[in-house]
Amino acid sequence: EVQMVQSGAVVKKPGESLRISCKGSGYNFPIYWINWVRQMPGKGLEWMGRIDPSDSYTDYSPSFQGHVTISVDKAISTAYLQWSRLQASDTAMYYCVRPRLHGDNGALDYWGPGSLLTVSS
Amino acid sequence: DIQMTQSPSSLSASVGDRVTITCQASQYINNYLNWYHQKAGKAPQLLIYDASNLETGVPSRFSGSGSGTDFTFTISSLQPEDIGTYYCQQYDNIPFTFGGGTKVEIK
User: Fold this and answer.
1) Cβ of A47 and B98 within 8 Å?
2) B46 touching A (Cβ < 8 Å)
3) Is there a cis peptide before residue B44, judged by omega within 30 degrees of 0?
């Protein structure tokens, strides 16, 4: 069974750094991209970017480029989303998602439960 | 970025009603269009991929059609468990983009 297990809810202060994680299991981790999707409170879905675990190649949405970093450790089947300086506007639920097919595919099929980030002074 | 315009933003219908949601892309996206359902407090679920293909395990009352720039999502007979928000999403170009969502309620 494919599972995406995400790190838990976290509360941080503005200016702090953070890395959240997403561990994939039940499938051949290196051959499926991992996507990250943001959902701000009461709002819609926003695609942030994705990473190819086989070679760590990344694509970012221009809206998030430079503000977050997506990385992966394929040895432990885990992808990461990282901030160096959090802002209050980063408060949101963050989902990691595996596509339906391996390779370059955008049908987002296996969603993690989400990691809730609250940034508040 | 490709803009995805979804309508309506909300609707209220009775159990058994036929429900239709539309999604228009700002440029040609072939059939690289997916539909998702999100229940309150839960992660989204993929229902339809590549405009018209039903994901495994998804009830047949859900369907999708369209190609190019104009797409339609239909629930043939609305059920109580169908409440929530529906999103379209294109993956023809990076960045992938979602429509604004359609909130479906039971009348």
Assistant:
1) yes
2) yes
3) no
Residue A103, pLDDT score: 84
* Tokens at A61, concatenated: 């949405």
Task: Provide the β-strand partners of residue A21.
Answer: A80
* pLDDT value at residue A104: 80
* Residue with the two structure tokens 């998702």: B36
User: CA gyration radius for chain A?
Assistant: 14
The three-state DSSP-derived secondary structure of B10-67 is EEEECCCCCEEEEEEECCCCCCCEEEEEECCCCCCEEEEECCCEECCCCCCCEEEEEE
Substitution target from B7, B36, B49 for chain A, most A beta carbons within 10 A: B49
The answer to whether B34 contacts A113, with C-beta atoms less than 8 Å apart, is: no
Asked whether residue A31 carries a pLDDT value surpassing 90, the answer given is: yes
Q: Do B44 and A106 touch (CB under 8 A)?
A: no
DSSP state letter for B92: S
- The structure tokens listed for A48 are 């942030």
Evaluate if residue A29 carries a pLDDT over 90. Answer: yes
> If you average pLDDT over every residue of chain A, what do you get?
97
CA distance B90 to B35: 9
- Alpha-carbon gap, residue B75 to A52, rounded angstroms: 35
